Amino acid sequence: MCEIAFFTEERFHLQTQEDEMRFSFFFAALLAATVTQGASAASKAAITPLPPKQAVASEDAQGSGNGGVIAFTFDIYGTTNPLAQAMPALASHQMPATVFLTTGSIGQVGSPTWDDVKGWIDKGFEVDSRGDSNKTLVTAGITDDAVRVQIIASAAKLARFTGVYPTAFSAAFGKTTDHVTDLVRPYYKLNVLTDDAGSGPKVGFNDLTKLSPYRVSRLMVTNQTAASDLCEDIAWTARGKRLLVIGFGNIEATASATPGWYDVSADNFNQILDCTAALVQSGSLKVVTLSDALSMATLAPPPPPKPKAPAPAPAPAATVAPK
């Protein structure tokens, strides 16, 4: 027999009807996961309420209302954990960040634990979903149910083990389609595309005056990305109502020699933070989490509904030959 932890809406900070809808959608999956895993210590313990996150009341409260915003994001899967190098540097600049987590690897040998994840949240980081396993969602022959498992199981685990429902989803390897986005839409407020311009002018850039929440563009930094080039992009962001989403796959003392790998040297990373910090101090730029960026944005109108396929013509009535 399994003990099941019951949760209150307050613990998940359900503030809107949309949040309540998402909660009801995944609650059955949450209970199923609890029963499947048996009476583990995690399933016996009620989730500790986290302090409500302070809402972004206005752009003026965050600094200049005419400047841009930056969202630093980090992908964590398997034993890859860029926060080991990034967190001290971010803390020294008092910058928040967003983590995209592959939830199925948490607790495995060499991987972060759920206590680690809760510690990131306590430090002001946002933790969102990269799916439950490190698999692409656009594999030939993959079923909608298999995609939904990745989408829902990850949200359920994050809510169950951290007490906070995720805001954003970014598919592993950044590969997605319009159909996968439609499957993500009921469970997350943001869908982040990797190395895809989305609805913005170029990869990574998004218009805060007409943000498309399910086509948020993200620029991944590789070992071939020059810090000086990225600092120019950051400076351009500061000159308008823009959101630049920057992603890191790993940060090492020395970057790999393999061209195009998603690992960055610690020196390059620190240069990027330094040029960002200078613009923050000038009041022309803000560093935020993705959920804060969403609260600051004006959303673009949703796309028109897809036309329904015409109904098949009725079969002709059978005729009876006269006798």
What does this structure look like?
With 323 residues, this protein is of the alpha/beta class. The protein has a single domain (15-48, 62-296), classed as TIM Barrel. 34% of the residues lie in helices and 15% in strands. The protein has ten helices and eleven strands. It has helices at residues 17-37, 41-44, 59-62, 83-93, 114-122, 144-162, 178-184, 227-237, 266-282, 290-296, and strands spanning 68-76, 98-101, 126-129, 168-169, 190-194, 205-207, 216-221, 242-248, 250-252, 263-265, 285-287. Strands 1, 2, 3, 4, 5, 6, 7, 8 and 11 form a nine-stranded mixed β-sheet that branches. Strand 2, helix 5 and strand 3 form a beta-alpha-beta unit. The protein is globular. The model is unreliable at 1-18 and 28-65 (pLDDT under 50).
Throw out a few tags for this protein.
323 residues, alpha/beta, TIM Barrel, 9-stranded mixed β-sheet, two-stranded parallel ribbon, 15% strand, globular, disordered N terminus
